[in-house]
User: Which sequence fits this backbone?
């Protein structure tokens, strides 16, 4: 299972939200580039970067931070946050983003995602399924739909999507443990997909439990920033 440290960005600073609320922003007063370099020095070869301003606004905002991170060597970079236009996708491809995370556009305009897949390949895209009380949230977690994963995943797999990022919003930033049952269900129901789990990881036991579900990777954020977990220790652990 891949261990992927997270960098969430607002106004060129690393931040974390609690339960997806923009009114609960905690600013760690460190630049995304510095944080990315620290993660790479600790041994990370994958990074998960989200432009929270972009997710809320509907277009990528923090380009300077993203470009600075991409200039760092030795890691695979996946990025999301407001990617809803051809222009943003083309620019992200041009600057060398390895995998683009899309959410709202995949659920509301899958025909547009299909066009991007046809042009750039399905391997370049990951669909974010963000859950709040079982239903999927869109537009930077601000709008909760009536859809569940059973409603949307089959059609996304059909158009070529293999990678899915799943976040339980109620767990995000709470450091109370991930929603293990959710990931068990996702992996068992759609075993052909690669699932990335996000939200709530705060202990080594959490990581071992996630690995046992069969998810491809675990996204870890606040526990690293708060010092509850050490990235080097996680990368070296055996479950």
Assistant:
């Amino acid at each position: 299972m891949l261990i992927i440290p997270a960098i969430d960005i607002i106004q060129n600073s690393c931040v974390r939200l609690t339960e997806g609320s923009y009114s609960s922003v905690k600013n760690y007063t460190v630049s995304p580039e510095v944080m990315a370099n620290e993660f790479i020095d600790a041994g990370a070869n994958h990074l998960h970067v989200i432009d929270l301003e972009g997710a809320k606004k509907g277009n990528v905002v923090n380009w300077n931070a993203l470009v600075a991170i991409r200039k760092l060597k030795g890691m695979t970079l996946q990025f999301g946050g407001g990617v809803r236009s051809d222009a943003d996708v083309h620019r992200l491809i041009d600057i060398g983003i390895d995998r683009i995370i899309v959410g709202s556009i995949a659920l509301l305009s899958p025909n547009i995602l299909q066009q991007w897949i046809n042009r750039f390949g399905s391997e370049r895209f990951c669909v974010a399924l963000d859950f709040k009380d079982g239903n999927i949230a869109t537009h930077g977690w601000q709008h909760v739909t009536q859809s569940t994963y059973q409603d949307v995943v089959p059609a996304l797999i059909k158009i070529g999507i293999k990678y899915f990022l799943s976040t339980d919003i109620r767990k995000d930033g709470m450091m109370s443990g991930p929603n293990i049952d959710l990931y068990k269900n996702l992996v068992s129901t759609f075993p052909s997909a690669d699932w990335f789990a996000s939200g709530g990881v705060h202990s080594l036991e959490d990581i071992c439990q996630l690995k046992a579900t069969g998810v491809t990777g675990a996204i870890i954020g606040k526990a690293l920033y708060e010092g509850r977990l050490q990235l080097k220790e996680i990368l070296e652990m055996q479950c």
User: Anything to note?
Assistant: Residues 110-120 form the longest helix (11 residues).
